[in-house]
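Fill in residues.
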């Protein structure tokens, strides 16, 4: 989907993700994916780093990614996962319109994607539709910092200027993802907020697992 493709941002994001694998992001991916099982839906494949952190309980993966350049960047990790015996299906689609039947996945992963989708509410509604009632949702999302903090003031400044979304592929750094999950009918008491990366604008992070 050409409207969602930002090749320059793909290059930058892939470099940041590669570096993150050797710092706090790699362990965080393993942590949030620890409870994933069965058929896992990845909303926003990106460069595919999450495939390197799948627990043994995951038997197959279906991933949606509307960016052509991101899908291309993910292919080496897709092929590596397939070589390990994991079935991986990569689809050109958006989270707002998942081409999947109801109750067809056991787990869902949101990792640094809800900041840039067109409609968080619609994406979460679609995730709940395709997720088994007893399924799990793995969350690794940067969010709006606490009001009044230095980080929150920075987020507000770059958002008002409109600079950050242009630099970061449409990212909205001030989304309240915990509230959105609650409004969509997911439990959030097991989600922890912590600072995770060294970029202040996006270091306030929601980490953990949720369920319908």
């Amino acid at each position: 989907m050409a409207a969602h493709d930002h090749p320059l941002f793909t290059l930058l994001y892939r470099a940041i993700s590669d570096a993150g694998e050797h710092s706090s992001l790699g362990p965080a991916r393993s942590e949030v994916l620890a409870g994933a099982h069965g058929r896992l839906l990845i909303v926003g494949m990106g460069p595919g780093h999450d495939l390197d952190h799948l627990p043994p309980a995951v038997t197959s993966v279906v991933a949606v990614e509307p960016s052509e350049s991101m899908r291309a960047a993910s292919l080496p990790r897709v092929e590596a996962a397939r070589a390990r015996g994991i079935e991986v299906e990569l689809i050109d689609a958006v989270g707002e319109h998942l081409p999947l039947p109801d109750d067809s996945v056991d787990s869902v992963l949101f990792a640094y994607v809800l900041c840039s989708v067109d409609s968080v509410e619609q994406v979460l509604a679609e995730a709940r539709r395709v997720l088994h009632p007893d399924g799990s949702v793995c969350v690794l999302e940067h969010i709006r910092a606490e009001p009044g903090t230095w980080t929150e003031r920075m987020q507000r400044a770059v958002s008002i200027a409109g600079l950050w979304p242009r630099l970061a592929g449409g990212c909205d750094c001030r989304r309240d993802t915990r509230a959105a999950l609650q409004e969509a009918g997911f439990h959030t008491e097991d989600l922890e907020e912590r600072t995770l990366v060294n970029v202040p604008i996006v270091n306030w992070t929601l980490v953990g697992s949720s369920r319908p």
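The first helix runs from residue 7 to 20.
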